[in-house]
Structure formats: C-alpha cells, structure tokens
Design brief:
Layout (H helix, E strand, L loop, with lengths): L20 H25 L5 H7 L20 H4 L1 H13 L7 H14 L7 E3 L1 H8 L7 E2 L2 E4 L6 E5 L4 H4 L7 E5 L2 E2 L5 H8 L6 E7 L7 E6 L1 E2 L5 E5 L4 E6 L6 H13 L5 E5 L8 H9 L6 E7 L4 E5 L11 E5 L6 H11 L3 E5 L7 E7 L6 E10 L15 E2 L4 H5 L4 H12 L1
Parallel strand pairs: 11-12, 12-15, 15-16, 16-19
Antiparallel strand pairs: 1-18, 2-9, 3-4, 5-6, 5-7, 7-8, 10-11, 13-14, 13-18, 17-18
C-alpha cells in the first residue's frame, strides 16, 4: 500500500499575500530543482523515493514504494511481503523487556500461527518433540480403551465406543472432551498425540479429566486399558429376510472380511441388505474403494480435488458380489472419511437409500512434511474428496435421504429406530 499524503497545516500568519510574485517564483524554482535532483539521484542510486514526497512533487514516472506492489495493491515479492514480519521480529529481539528472547520458540510460534491462519483444523504444526512422538510407531496390536474419537478442535472428543470396551463400561459418553490425560493439560495439543497418551499397554490405567455436556464441573475417570480385538465386519440375518452388515472400520483386512460376510448372508437369499456405517470413523482410502466396488455398477467412486483445480478419479474395481440387491445405508455423526466416501458413492449412484443422521464431514487429504534442521513437521491439507456427482464432503457431510434421530432415550431403551426404519424401507420394496 502507498503511504498517505500527510495532512498539511497552514503556516503561521495565514495565507500568503498576493503581492509576493518573486518569492513564489523563487520557491517554485527551488522545489523544481530539488525535485529534479532527487529524481536523477534516485535513478543513479536505484533508491526508492517516499510516496508522500513523490505524490506532492507530482513527477511522472518517478519510482516509488508502490512500484513493488501488484495491481491489486498487494506486495509482488516474498521479500516485500515479509518486511513487516522481520521488522516485528527485530523489534521483539531488541526491545522486549525479558532478554534474551528464545529465537527458536519465536520461529516455531510463527509457523504455528501461519498454519492456524488457514482456518483448517486438519492443517497444523508439530514441534520436534511432538513430531518424534508422532513418528514413533505403536508396537503390537491396538491396546487402549476402545473409543472412536474426533481429533479436530482444541480438545479430543469421544464420538462412540466399541461394545463392551473399557471406555463404555466406565461410563464415558459421546461428546466428552479430554481436558487432561494423567494430569497433563491437553489444550491445543494435536489430537494424534493425545490419542497416543490415552492408548497404552493392556493392564495399565489412564486417568482422564473430561468436560461433559450440561455439567459445569469436569468429570475425572480412570480407565484400565485392555487389548482391543475386534473384527472390522459383522454380518447376520435379521427377521423378515433382511441381511445386515456392520462395518466398524476400514482396515487392511476389511474387504476380505466383507466378502466373506456377504457370501454367507447371500446364501440365505435376502430381500434386501442393510450396510451399517454408523460411528465408523473411516480408515484406508483404498479399502473404501474396495468396499464400494462390492455394491456399485457405476465406474466412479470419488474424485480427489487439488488446490490447482486438478482432479484425480478413483474408479471401482471389478468383481463386486452384491451389485443388485436392494440396499439401505445407515449413517450418523460418527460416520466419517472412508464411510462418507462409500455412502456418498452409493447415494449418488441411486444404489442405496441413506437413513439416519448427517455424517461427520471429513473429506480432506493431509500430508505430513518434515521441516529442515529437524524443526518438526507441518501437516497440510493437499486435497478434498468429492462424491461422483462432485459434491464436497469436507465440513459439509452427507444428508440422509431419510432423517431419523436416535435419541438417548432410544439408546437406553435399546430401541434402534434407525435400523427399524431401514428394515421398513426394504420390506416395503
């Protein structure tokens, strides 16, 4: 931006008298000579003339600070753009009352602030210690408390729990937010790191301080971890000749387990099929394509849209074994990511009726990129997922064709009204 012309105050004594033509001419000549001198010195030395002086002199073609700006008024180079940043950096380094300042922390704080300015909860920064923790793989099988969580936001939030899991048995509730883990404040800590602290060897305990909806005081719960062993697919026949398949996650073995479950129920010649994706927080992208391919006759499962506008198409695999049976898909607020890919593809193709509640809205792709000098890493959202009809999933979710809310009263009474509605739709067909 160009500097504004300063407000000019009248000289003492008011306006100049008209009976002074010689003085006015001399002043004009002096100003002109100064202007020309400044102009040619500027050309010779390659210097910028302040905008207010240039504007007051009205010299055509004079090079000013505004020449470093683009047509929309923004700096045209990275150096010009970050001039105020380095000015602020130098001011803090020289003038801040507590000296010396920690320059490394200032740098890390600047990166963290830059990532937060994107307004994307999935793009973030990890300092070196956090990144080392994140990079350490978990050994052995999954051991923890058996919960499905939302890692977006300031606090990790529980969405649902595996049946019979330690979390469920200790009375944890959907919507509980993790304020502390073993006495350590978790405010603003990356959700993946919070999860690593909640998980741990079977037989050990973890103490959680939770913010619970409608309660003013936090709830403190100690949960004993255990080995969580659960198939990702459960299949069975319901009354009225309806097949029921529940997907709990999208793991490496999910498609094999799904094919086995489908073959078993298809032997019963079912009238219809219910695919339950409720509280399924997702998993591998490739698995979601394999699962969708079992049911779709159409070619496209999803598109991946990049910031450049480029799109990558993911198509169905051959050999699906349940492409003709009438279907209903159950979704809710815990259906996210890979679940939304499958549900969205089936909905767009007219292949299945979606019943339940609006899905979570996690339809973006992130890359972890290590920074130079071992200064941690940034996680950047590089693409978004679109359904075959190019509907955006991220932060929007999928709206069910038939909206049915499952209330706490329904849960306590073991009255699955969403499942009942799915059966009703299939039996009526």
């Amino acid at each position: 931006m160009t500097n504004p012309i300063p407000n000019l105050e009248p000289l003492p004594g008011g306006q100049p008298e008209k009976a002074q033509p010689v003085r006015i001419v001399l002043v004009a000549m002096v100003v002109t000579l100064l202007a020309l001198g400044l102009f040619f010195c500027g050309l010779a030395a390659g210097l910028y003339i302040p905008d207010d002086i240039a504007a007051s002199l009205s010299l055509p073609g004079l090079k000013t600070n505004s020449s470093a700006e683009s047509e929309d008024g923004k700096p045209s180079s990275r150096e010009e753009l970050f001039t105020p940043f380095w000015q602020a950096y130098d001011l803090v380094k020289s003038d801040y009352v507590e000296q010396p300042v920690d320059e490394e922390k200032m740098m890390q704080g600047a990166i963290r602030g830059m990532m937060e300015s994107l307004g994307d909860p999935h793009s973030s920064y990890m300092d070196p210690d956090e990144y080392r923790q994140m990079a350490d793989p978990l050994e052995g099988e999954y051991e923890g408390i058996g919960a499905i969580v939302d890692i977006k936001g300031d606090y990790v939030t529980f969405i649902s729990f595996f049946p019979g899991s330690p979390a469920e048995l200790m009375g944890l509730k959907p919507g509980d937010m993790v304020l502390e883990v073993n006495g350590k404040d978790m405010t603003g800590i990356d959700g993946n790191l919070v999860l690593k602290q909640i998980r741990g060897p079977a037989g050990t305990e973890v103490t959680l301080k939770l913010k619970r909806k409608d309660l003013e005081e936090p709830v403190v719960v100690t949960v004993k971890r255990q080995k969580i062993t659960m198939n990702s697919v459960e299949g069975k026949m319901l009354d009225n000749g309806i097949a029921y398949i529940e997907l709990l996650t999208f793991g490496e073995k999910t498609n094999d387990e799904l094919v086995a479950a489908l073959k078993k129920v298809m032997e019963e010649d079912p009238k219809g099929l219910i695919l339950d994706l409720r509280n399924n927080g997702g998993g591998y992208l490739n698995t979601s394509i394999q699962v969708a391919s079992q049911f779709l006759k159409t070619d496209v499962v999803l598109y991946e849209e990049y910031g450049t506008g480029e799109m990558k198409t993911f198509q169905t695999n051959r050999g699906g074994i349940a492409k003709d049976i009438p279907m209903v898909v159950l979704i809710n607020g815990g259906s996210a990511s890979a679940s939304e890919i499958v549900a969205g593809a089936l909905q767009d193709a007219g292949r299945a009726t979606l019943v339940g509640e609006k899905s979570y809205g996690k339809g973006s792709v992130q890359n972890w990129i290590p920074l130079n000098n071992k200064e941690g890493a940034v996680r950047i959202t590089i693409a978004r997922w679109l359904t075959p009809n190019k509907r955006q999933i991220n932060e929007k979710g999928l709206e069910p064709d038939v909206k049915i809310e499952l209330t706490e009263e329904n849960v306590k009474a073991l009255d699955d009204v969403q499942l009942k509605k799915a059966v009703e739709i299939l039996t009526s067909k």
